[in-house]
Amino acid sequence: MRRFLLTLLLLTMTLPAAGCWDKTELNELAITSATGLDFKDGRWLVSFQVVIPQSISNQSGSSSGAQAPVMVFSTEGESIRGAVQRSSFEMPRALFFAHNRILIIGEEAARRGFSQMIDIYLRNPDSRETVSVYVTQGTAREVLEHLIPLEKIPGAAIGNLIKNEELNGSNFQETRLYQMAMKMTGEAAAVVVPEIFISGDNRQADSLDSLKRTVAGSKLKLNRVGIFKKDKFIGWMKRTDAYGLSWITDSVKKTTFFFGCAKGDEHYQASLLINDSKTRRTPHIKKGKLSVDVKVRAKGTLMENNCITDPSRLEGLRELEETAAEEIKKRIMEAFRTGQQMKVDVFGFASLFHKEFPEQWRGLKDQWEEQLAAMTLVPAVEVEIDRLGMSTKPFKKLLQTGNEGSQPTRQETTTEGR
């Protein structure tokens, strides 16, 4: 009995000794909100945007002695991981990447290839493979240094920027690192990454004084998309082509689409808010020739009509719908021709043919660039304007006639011939 009590006492005494032997306090960490990758003079340059907690928690407003919400510093090395390791030479806290949302790649580093960075993110548990990836024509560090109005943390602001565009504009799509890895190792081995660049004078964009003016001297903007073949950057695709790419890949969620008053008219005077869109792609092989049918169906609300065409009449409504459909078809073909010229399958057609024709794919995959260059795209677009807004007749026509007259509703128009 005495031995049992002694053993129980010893076990009880060991309980307080149990604890977190490898704990790390919050005040020992440097929270990283964004990371940049550059290549300069034969060495990798990694930049870190570190959050300053005491500045973020200050809600009293800005003052002459206010501190910037983030600080940016860079380290360099012969390898990317070696550059990251050197951060301990100048940072009193350990870098914490769990809240890192943004990875920006400079053009020089992108042309060099950044498979090292992908390997680091996929291999290390302290990195997030869900970070959003961007490419910039200049250096990534300059982008990280830029402060953004309305948001205290620039890294979070950049993430919100692409999400807002993806949901409301559909010109660009957010590209996460794990998506890049999957597409680079897929059949097409190609991926598009949105470009972010500094527009305007960047001399004081890293100072709090730049946020005290009503007009910003410079701002961060989305512009083009960078095309990557495997892990290397090969060129740029302009914004209008990126928009056509969104239609081809069924990535249009919500967008305001502009078109002219007649087919082929590039003087855009009408706009349509697309709130429902679906793209179906069907691959074909006939007599050894490849083709893809791209069928687009879109519905939306007429937001602007500076044309004489009267959408309150059925023939006028159909004319606007056909004009809008023709403009979408034009954007699709321009994007497709750009991809053919760059010899890169950013459309994902390779996976379509692999899935639909697995036997023929064995003979196609080794010469896919040549097959893509000879491929035919057959677009078919159907646009339906389901709402005309609060006004039906175009105001421009009312000015010409000088008589407002009656304004039939959309229901009267649809029951007339639909």
UniProtKB/TrEMBL annotation:
Keywords: Germination, Lipoprotein, Membrane, Palmitate, Signal
Signal peptide, first to last residue: 1-19
Chain positions covered by the region annotation Disordered: 397-418
Biological process per Gene Ontology, one example term: spore germination
InterPro entries for the chain: GerAC_N (IPR057336), Spore_GerAC-like (IPR008844), Spore_GerAC-like_C (IPR046953), Spore_GerAC_C_sf (IPR038501)
Record membrane topology: Lipid-anchor
Regions annotated as coiled coil: none
Start and end residues of each Spore germination protein N-terminal domain: 22-196
Cell compartment(s), UniProt: Membrane
Annotated ranges, domain Spore germination GerAC-like C-terminal: 225-389
GO cellular component, one term: membrane
Polar residues: compositionally biased ranges: 400-412
Main location: membrane
NCBIfam families hit by this protein: spore_ger_x_C
Family per similarity comment: Belongs to the GerABKC lipoprotein family.
The name this protein goes by in its record: Germination protein, GerC family
